[in-house]
Structure formats: C-alpha cells, structure tokens
Design goal:
The chain contains no helices and seven strands. By secondary structure, it is an all-beta fold. The strands form two sheets. Strands 3, 4, 5, 6 and 7 form a five-stranded antiparallel β-sheet that branches.
C-alpha cells in the first residue's frame, strides 16, 4: 500500500494521486420508441462512450503496468425490445442487448483520436 501524502480529517492521512492529463469523456446515444399498434411496441437504443484518462505514477495498487500511461476506454451498447399484449392477461416481452467495454493502455501521447 502506498503511504499517505496529505493530512486528512479526524487525525488520519490521505493519499492523493493525480494523472499527467485531465480525464476526457465523450458520450452520445439515441433511443427510438415505436407504437406499432395499441397492443404492440418496439423500442431500440444505442450508446457510445469514449473515456480517456491518465494513470498516475505509483498508482494505488502499484501495478507495474500502471506507469503514467493513458487509459483509453471505448464503450458501445445496444438494446432492442418488443412488447405485444396478446390478451388482457398475457403479455409477450422480448428483449436483447449487448455491451462492449474494452480498456486499451497507451504510452503518453500515443493514444488514438476519438472517431
């Protein structure tokens, strides 16, 4: 465990680490709802998120791979839902979704531009 480097509250000390660059996040998404008929509904959603942050030297867990690099995390997700009221007591609800989240670690100044 790294040693504390700042005084804290109630007589304890705190650890404060800062990366070399600020954290940047770009997020966008959209959703469509379609009322096909009074008993049928279709819905779809898509989301895209890009996070770029630097990992400080001597990070909390002292992982040898976390050496002041840039962590680039693109995330994508999608969702589709179909609902059909078959009778007053029976509803068919079908849903499917996917999430993709993959971290990529780059040396300082080598990370890709957000597309």
């Amino acid at each position: 465990m790294p040693l504390p480097n700042l005084p804290g509250n109630s007589g304890t000390n705190d650890l404060y680490l800062i990366g070399a660059t600020p954290t940047t996040r770009y997020t966008g998404g959209g959703k469509i709802d379609w009322l096909i008929s009074p008993t049928q509904r279709l819905s779809a959603r898509a989301t895209q998120d890009y996070l770029t942050e630097s990992i400080p030297e001597a990070s909390y867990f002292r992982n040898p791979l976390d050496t002041n690099n840039i962590d680039f995390v693109p995330r994508h997700s999608g969702f589709v839902s179909y609902t059909n009221t078959l009778s007053p007591t029976l509803v068919l609800d079908i849903r499917s979704g996917i999430n993709r989240d993959y971290d990529q670690d780059f040396a300082m100044g080598q990370y890709p531009a957000v597309r």
